[in-house]
Amino acid sequence: MGCGPSIPKKYTVGGKGRKRRSIIQEVAVFVPTVRIPVASDIVHPLRGVVSKDLVDRLSTLRAHVVELAEEIYYADVSAVSELQHALEEYLPVVLGLTMKESCLESSVQFRWKTLDDDQECCLASAWYEVLSVVHMMAMLALFEANLTLIPKNGQVGGERKVSEDAKKDVVDSLLRASGCLDYSVHRILVQIPAQVKKSFPSYLQEGMLEAISIQALAQCVEIQLGLASECEKATLSVKRRLACEQVSYFSQAHYCLSGCNTSDSYGKKLLLFLKWKCMEAKAVAYYYHGLVLDKGGEPANHISAVCCLSAADDLLSEGKRACLSFCLANPVTRVPPPWGVMKNMHKKIPDVAYKKFQVYGHLFEKDKNRVCAVSETGRVRVAKH
Questions:
Q1: CA 143 to CA 28: how far, in whole Å?
Q2: Partners of residue 112 on adjacent β-strands
Q3: Which CATH number belongs to the domain containing residue 145 in this structure?
Q4: Residue 23: DSSP 8-state
């Protein structure tokens, strides 16, 4: 699905082509892609091999998932929850095909396609079906989090006003997505033969799944940091720790992609998203670190604080450029208004950096003169030798 609900122009529902409105969507939580199941022949390959009741149940549950998934682009949070529930019902049934004693792991051709460009991947592997189901559950959790954070009135450039309870729901969705992807990497992928994995699309690569899992954790911390920034009881050290943790997560996610094929639009968009969010997180981390240093009583503390605040201001500018690059990359998305901790940081960081330099600028001159004097003394000594 590219980025949350950003979908292309035409989509087939119920066998009829239907044009969509051309909408440039806004992104709060990045959803790399959503894949949906395509109707597959389950009855014929399993007829006479397993009980009719089991075949009917498997076929009915999957058909229900297919039906619900076809309309996911137009869905709200409640519809996403309904689809999640349908997947949870279907998953334990299809897991039965993976049992070694059943010898049914490669008996059915399972078909899936990406929602935005209809690229299809069909494999005779029950483990592929299990992986696809769990992957879809993760993407829907990210999609649900994005829907919760985007303003319901849909006004372009409108300020995001999200309640604290809604933010907690978003954190729950992000943790659920991260857990599904972590399970996919460590419990499902290890069951799939290497020759089958070679046929996987790029967004099912191990590194890609790990990156999105860690990205979800980073966005959890992003929301926690936003809540902490609004809390008077949260200390500067706590805010700095959360900001540094966010930087660490986004950096880890970026590293996971180093061995992946990111040449397609999904990979490129994800790389740009991680770069943008990492820049923002670094800016906030330097800002809070500068405020912590400024509490020291020595001139060196104030000099270091001003350096950190200046670095935060530079990173903030780089983050704005990275955000624009992300939004312009295909599929194009709307430049989002600052939200969470960044809602105030876009004004605070440059203002505080400027004021602190005004107050402590003279210390830089003294320090520069001292460094020049030390350097000159060193040159004189060298000349004497």
A1: 10
A2: 37, 121
A3: 1.25.40.280
A4: -
Question: Is 214 inside a domain boundary?
Answer: no
Please return the burial class of 319, using the count of CB atoms within 10 Å of its CB with bins 0-12, 13-18 and 19+.
Answer: buried
Cα 197 to Cα 120: distance, rounded to the nearest angstrom: 15
pTM for the predicted model, two decimal places: 0.88
169 and 274 belong to one structural domain:
no
- Give residue for tokens 């503390």: 301
Decide which of 64 and 158 is more confident: 64
- Would residue 196 count as lying in a domain? yes
Report the C-alpha gap between 219 and 330 in whole angstroms.
Answer: 22
Domain count, the chain: 2
Same-domain check for residues 124 and 167: yes
Identify whether the C-beta of residue 69 lies closer than 8 Å to the C-beta of residue 37.
yes
One domain, residues 193 and 264: no
Residue 144 included in any domain: yes
Residue 361's pLDDT band (cuts 50, 70, 90): confident
Query: For residue 137, what are the CA distances in angstroms to 45, 89, 181, 317?
Result: 26, 12, 9, 36
- DSSP per-residue letters across 87-148: HHHHHHHHHGGG-GGGT-TTSS-EEEEETTT--EEEES-HHHHHHHHHHHHHHHHHHHHHHH
Residue with tokens 């006003």: 161
Q: Residue 195 has which token pair?
A: 């020759």
- Could you tell me if 54 and 194 lie in one domain? yes
Radius of gyration of the chain from Cα atoms? 26
Please indicate, yes or no, whether residues 174 and 63 belong to a single structural domain of this protein: yes
Q: Indicate if 59 and 196 belong to the same structural domain.
A: yes
Q: Tell me whether strands 10-13 and 16-19 are parallel, antiparallel or unpaired.
A: antiparallel
Say whether both 256 and 178 belong to one domain.
Answer: no
Q: 169: which 2 tokens?
A: 């729901």
* Same domain membership, residue 254 and residue 167: no
Pairing assessment for the beta strands 10-13 and 120-123 based on DSSP bridges: unpaired
* Domain ranges, residue 81: 22-150+163-204
Number of residues that this document lists for the chain: 385
- Per residue in 46-65, pLDDT (tens digit) is 998 999 999 999 999 999 99
H-type helices in the chain, by residue range? 43-46, 52-69, 77-95, 126-149, 164-183, 194-197, 206-229, 236-256, 265-294, 299-328, 342-384
Distance CA 245, CA 276 (A): 16
